[in-house]
Amino acid sequence: MQRLVILGVAHSDAHAVANHLIAMQLREYGFTVVNLGVCTPLADFAAALEANPTAEAVVIGSLNGHAYADLADLPALRAAGRLRCPVVLGGNLTVGSHKSAGGIERLRGLGVDHILENPFELPVVLDLIREAATAGRVAAGV
Amino acid sequence: MQRLVILGVAHSDAHAVANHLIAMQLREYGFTVVNLGVCTPLADFAAALEANPTAEAVVIGSLNGHAYADLADLPALRAAGRLRCPVVLGGNLTVGSHKSAGGIERLRGLGVDHILENPFELPVVLDLIREAATAGRVAAGV
Amino acid sequence: MSETVEWAGMRIDRSTAADLPQWRETVDALRTSTRPRAADALRAAHRTGRPIAQPRCGVGGHEEMLELLRRLEPAGPGMLTVTIDSYTRLKQFDRAAQALREAPADLNGYPLTVHGWRRGRQLLDAVGVPLEVRHGSPDARDLFAVALAAGFTSFEGGGIGYNVPYCKDVPFATSMEAWRQVDAVCGALADDGVIVDRELFGTLTAVLVPPSISLACTLLEAIAAVREGVRCLSIAYPQGGEVHQDVAALRSIRALAARYLPPHVAVHPVLHEFMGVFPRGRGTADALILYGGLVARLGGADKIINKTNQEAYGIPDADANALGIRTALMGTSELLDFVALDEARIDEEMSWLQREVAELVDPVLQDGDVPAGVAGAFAAGRLDVPFSASVHARSLVVPARDATGAIRYRRTGELPFSAAVRQRNDRLTDTGAAAPDRFIQAVTADINYFLRDEPASV
Amino acid sequence: MSETVEWAGMRIDRSTAADLPQWRETVDALRTSTRPRAADALRAAHRTGRPIAQPRCGVGGHEEMLELLRRLEPAGPGMLTVTIDSYTRLKQFDRAAQALREAPADLNGYPLTVHGWRRGRQLLDAVGVPLEVRHGSPDARDLFAVALAAGFTSFEGGGIGYNVPYCKDVPFATSMEAWRQVDAVCGALADDGVIVDRELFGTLTAVLVPPSISLACTLLEAIAAVREGVRCLSIAYPQGGEVHQDVAALRSIRALAARYLPPHVAVHPVLHEFMGVFPRGRGTADALILYGGLVARLGGADKIINKTNQEAYGIPDADANALGIRTALMGTSELLDFVALDEARIDEEMSWLQREVAELVDPVLQDGDVPAGVAGAFAAGRLDVPFSASVHARSLVVPARDATGAIRYRRTGELPFSAAVRQRNDRLTDTGAAAPDRFIQAVTADINYFLRDEPASV
Ligand code: B12
Ligand code: B12
To answer: Is ipTM strictly over 0.90?
Structure first.
């Protein structure tokens, strides 16, 4: 079966290069990529998931430092039964050059399932997600 | 009458360039300069004064930051009746790039009569010293 | 969409307009202001032959912004910046206001429309150099109105450069019209004796942008702006990394201006220091910042937008930014005036580059209506940008570095280049037809050109 | 005078010797040490074609010295320094000890002989790069003994360069003999497999030193050192400020070594960044430090001794020194590899420079006894240095900058130059016979060449 992921960049963020390259890389790897591109509201990710219910994950990039605010609606959406598949996040997630662990914790608190440093980890993580799903349970963080 | 000054650089200090130029400049201005050069112990200044009793001043340069330690014997020499003429000091007088007023105060405490920033002030200060001497009193700092 | 009203001939949000002074008051304040003006600073730089430096800088809180400007000024910038946050750029003013209330330090810039023009004026009064508003708004009319009311005399952006890299789905017709209105206000102000410096963002998507694409886009924006009466243009070009190409591009800005723009318009070439993936090690980062300063001077730029050695990590702190200004300026020092380049090689680059630009620009100008021409060309791929953020550019062009590091076209897509231009690019990028996975690797290597294996700088 | 004893063939103070380990212990410790060695660091630099940077640094207190070294290391120096205080340099060990007791922060360097070799060893163990002892002692035998016992593998100085600028009245016979003994110890160590890097202080009086005088003096010291068995020489030249002249001088070091020294001796050209009156403004100071790094790379130096932007004010703090290291290294960055010079002009400089050096050096070498030759030549003014601190150099030569800024001879005094050399210098410095007061002004202007009217850096 054709594997499918939904890809995009957070709502206030226009950084496009990593998004282009990650899409190419995942296609190279055999995925069908529904790429929503930059500046994508969380609701659009949810809508895309509803249109593509077989999607294994929603993969979001955020580079401009606004990840937390841009994903702040995730708990509300999930509570409404939307965006229920694993959310994978990567990029430059907080503002400033001196990062603290707190910034990442906050994002996990919103319900982000996987936070990755490097897009090259994506295929492995997507494989793990599928295994976990097949085993009928959701992997609890990587 | 030929005006005469004694010139030199402090005991631990080998910086020669300002000394060469100040000697030239004072000679240009009409002074006889007894130039003791670099690395001159205070006792040698005293001896030179004794050999040239008409000297109007002893002019000492110090650039390496050791002015205080190199002039520490001044009170003792003066107490012994030596080096009684005005002592003029200039250069880079304390160690470090962030100078404090305390460094200068300490030197005045040793009995240094005039502390100058710029050698171009020397002729004026020497004139003042002579006037004061003629008037039978010593100018109290400039 | 929120309700709009007219202010100085621009359509802006009613809520924005509600807080603004009258247009005549704004003009009078600008005309009688004794603050330093951007246009003068640029003209002075041009006269001395040494570019001024300008940092990007913007934080959410107002006091913090004042403090930041004051801490950067001693480093010697010729101009300072108020960099605007992403929400404001995208006219998500509510989210900007919310972030400002809840966590101002989490904003990636200063939300000027939320703070309002009175606070903007305090920023201008805080330092002795002109300030520019730098942002990335496809439609900046509200922001521009607030900036003018505050008294800013320099405003960045244009209908192409602030569309393609900065949003997903704003049609060119929309962004070109929004910026036409901004430029028309500048024209009106110029008639009143107030010159607003308009900087055009030739950096576009920043990563491996072929110089002729950058110059073509800013030239089209410049022509459109001048038609609306703009008199002072800063045309920015992003340092690509190969010195002859970069110098040729900077020098071509004046040459193209002479050819395409009327002589009464002041044109100031600006170098944006390397805008792509920045080295993470402090040694290379600092050297690259210095290198940018030197390239700017050699290329005859009037201004440098400096980077910092924290670029790879996040928005820089004030110390890193101050050092970035100083390091860029070091490259402009007269002590390096002995550095000379192979002028024949630069001439050759310039001639090819200007030819490419003409081949891109001339067809767009043919019908006279620049905004429509731009929209049509992008739709057809006759104008194009690699790695576009906007869906309205096709990103069929693929850039590549040649053996010297210069940025060429690996694929020209639908660009209307002559055979000669295409052949030259093919020759320079001839690395054999790369397999798809090798292709990603090759592009990534070109993107990461300045990365080195060295200790991190932060 | 204090009583002396023999240690490793050198005569040193009995009190110094009393505290030292046995010579064989010292040799064994040096031979078996796993610490990085200066000679290896220099050889590695030579292989890469990029000079390493090294700061001057020394403070009185031991803990403060450890702290200073640790704070400088992250800036990336290839070697670090223990700069010795003026008292110790002049063998006023009692005054150094007193100052250390009473006010260590008032010392302008680290009194290594007072602290003793065990603490020296702690310094070496504190960082991961080799350390050099830099001082200015006409007679450094005691200091060298302590340095060796501690484990230092690099030691600066020589019978000319550490006499002329550093003391008033030490005859050349004395200083040359003291340094002959130091070099002989290095020779003995080399036979035991321990290579000590010996740096020669071509900077001399630092201010407007004509390059041929610098190169002639270090060449004579080098020849004398090699005769005693020295195998690793760092030959330092002070940046004068004109790029072609400086590059020509650095490259001439290797050329002269090839001509006058046996091939088994490793010779490392070293650039001392501008050693004269330093600019007080931060912009020019930083640019000059950068410029030095670039000149060093272009001239093929293996090492740069960096300056700092506090040079004009006083001994720099650790932050300024770290920045100085980084700024100098920036000049060596591969990103500046595109900088090329007029090679024909450099060749022409090199040929005249080497001719001048030969005209100075060959007569001194004629009788075979270098120390005696040096003493005789200085007495006669056939070797000479401007602005000498020592009364044993006559300072009849007067330097001047030519129109390009290069340092020439305004007066050659008694230097045994050929008519061709004199004519060239006359031609280049022909500014009309200056009246005495104009003369002081002219010399002062040449000395203050890099001063600018700009805000102070401290
Ligand atoms: C190019 C660039 C731009 C271009 C973008 C053009 C475009 N539309 O794509 C321009 C000039 C337009 C731009 C604009 C802005 N930028 Co920008 N930009 C960069 C820059 C130089 C390189 C980014 C890039 O393309 N890299 C190449 C790609 C391949 O890699 P990447 O994006 O760095 O992502 C890597 C990882 O983060 C990760 N990754 C990325 N996405 C994802 C997603 C997933 C799922 C995973 C697993 C991994 C992952 O993988 C990548 C490879 O390692 C970086 C600094 C740097 N890195 O050198 C700043 C940077 C990202 N930008 C920054 C900012 C703030 C902005 C602005 C908001 C302006 C501002 N206030 O300064 C605006 C954006 C406005 C908006 N609405 O978002 C900041 C972010 C600061 C922070 N987080 O603290 C940075 C770090 C610069 C800085 N130091 O200030 N930018
Ligand atoms: C050239 C130089 C040297 C040469 C000197 C050669 C020689 N024998 O003359 C060399 C390289 C050998 C040298 C050695 C040392 N130096 Co040195 N040197 C300098 C330098 C670069 C220029 C000095 C100079 O010649 N200037 C030109 C002359 C014309 O001006 P000037 O000396 O600066 O003096 C001016 C004023 O001070 C004043 N002035 C000077 N003397 C007098 C006297 C009177 C009466 C008056 C009124 C005014 C006055 O007038 C002058 C013109 O404005 C300065 C830094 C700088 N300024 O850029 C450091 C500097 C003076 N040196 C310094 C030091 C410490 C040393 C050393 C001790 C080494 C060390 N530990 O770092 C040794 C000296 C050893 C010893 N025994 O003294 C420090 C002093 C630090 C401090 N006070 O905190 C300085 C400031 C460098 C630094 N930033 O560390 N040095």
So the answer is: yes
